[in-house]
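FAQ: What does the model actually see?

It sees only this:
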Amino acid sequence: MANLIFEKSDSLLSFESYQNADGFSALKKALKMKPEEIIKEITDSKLVGRGGAAFPVGRKMSFVANEDSDEKYIICNADEGEPGTFKDRELLKRNPMKIIESVIIAAYAIGATKGYLYVRGEYTNIKKIIQQGLEDTRKNGYLGDNILDSGFNFDIEYRSGIGAYICGEETALIESIEGRTGDPRHKPPFTAEVGLFGKPTLVHNVETLANLLPIFNLGSDLYKSYGTPNSTGSKLFSVSGNVVNKGVYEVAFGTSLKDLIYQHCGGVPNNLQIKFVQIGGSSGIVLPGFLLDIDLSYETFQKLGAGLGSGAIFVADQSVCVLDFLYSTARFFRHESCGKCTPCREGNRHISILLDNFRKGKGKPGDIETLIRTCTVMQEASFCGLGQSAPRPILSILKYFKSELMSHLKGKCLTGVCPMEEGGNHLEY
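And it is asked to produce this:
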């Protein structure tokens, strides 16, 4: 299939090269439409958010558009702190003008007066590229007052993230922009009503906004012809781990996980067997190697009680110890928990201790039940998505690989990477 998001022209860093490649055609079309017509076109495309929640984009935009306020904001979330996720980085690095154009279209549709590009602080190598793109866009009349003589006034400000995983959550991100610690807010009120500086705010991640251009350039009907009836268009997947060709891949929804790994990524090095695959980042579900014939679509993963998340896929061959994998993940969440709520703060700490005891051969049979009970409490009582989703990989590992975890009770790591075995080295994110 032809790509919808990544195109042949996606190595265009300058304003001139982007404009010469028919850039801003979608914006020019959108500015001739009424805001409600733009939202209807997006709604008709059945586009859903690509950040993890998969909420209908048109509906989310209409919430903000219908708010009566003298000021409205739009935030492009490029914080991308999920381990193994690097798709938004590639979009911004290859063609920042495309994202800028997408933000302007969304801003016009909801009546936003100002936008923010909130980019992960570690992405220092693309900061100058994006800032130059904003300056050139402003200089040529596509940002600022009276954009393209449309009467629409709008500008975008660049903001660097503070290096916290929690700032990928929209309310924590807003707190960060406002100059406070990036802690999540209570909901309701939702950001569509009370967001940045107390005003209605639309927050979308980079990939979500990038999908606006093919919708307007191709039309919602053609856009919907890609993918499945309930998961339209294409999806970017950041693939890492034990695969021959690591990187970002764009495939239509409905493509099988097996085809993505073996046809697009070249399979596993040395023809080793896949032990498990984690989908959706560090908080994603873990599937064993015999379940690769599964469609990559929102409806399929909803049946599994999971989601596609950010689109990160980690492939592990038979040399990876599932306990060591879980311990590395647990340490990450323990470090990144903001500590605001007890279930997440203490739950992640307790999980790390339990898993470390298993790795060192000090675990007890009852620890498995304690682990399950802790995960359940976290899922039901944590304040935000971090604590609610952090237990997901643990519970899925217990479903498919419980016997391997139990082997550590007998002082034996089947793959020989845990400290109880000489020369073992654990995974690091």
